[in-house]
Amino acid sequence: MSVAKVIEISAESPEGFEAAIRNGMKQASKTVENIKGAWISEQKLKIENGQIAAYRVDMRVTFVLQ
């Protein structure tokens, strides 16, 4: 039997939502082992001077406890 835990993280990128997701997962995988999945709960834009400055995502990451 396995037990999983869910954490919520936020990440951003100036390049797009997909890049923000990749950045978040790359950082999370440095300290969290056994990641099994993730889902995006929110997507947001950071606006500066009427232009998109950054793409932000909030995501929930599921990993199996050892």
Q: Which properties best describe this structure?
A:
Dodecin subunit-like, 66 residues, alpha+beta, elongated
Name the helicity range: 10-25%
Strand order of the largest sheet: 1-3-2
CATH superfamily: Flavin-binding protein dodecin
Helix/strand/pairing category: alpha+beta
SS element count, helices: 1
The N- and C-terminal alpha carbons lie at a distance of: 11 Å
Low-confidence stretches: none
CATH arch. level architecture: 2-Layer Sandwich
Rg: 14 Å
Strand coverage percent: over 45%
CATH class (first level) name: Alpha Beta
> In the residues, how many domains can be counted?
1
Predict the CATH topology: Dodecin subunit-like
Q: Biggest sheet, open or closed, and with what strands and sense?
A: 3 strands, antiparallel
Q: What sort of overall outline do the alpha carbons produce when their principal axes are compared?
A: elongated
What is the ordering of alpha helices and beta strands? EHEE
What's the β-strand tally? 3
Overall pLDDT metric: 96
Q: How would you describe this structure to a colleague?
A:
It is a single chain. The chain is α+β, with helices and mostly antiparallel strands and 66 residues long. The protein has a single domain, classed as Dodecin subunit-like, CATH 3.30.1660. A three-stranded antiparallel beta sheet has the order 1-3-2, covered by helices on one side. A hairpin with a 2-residue loop joins strand 2 and strand 3. It starts with a strand and ends with a strand.
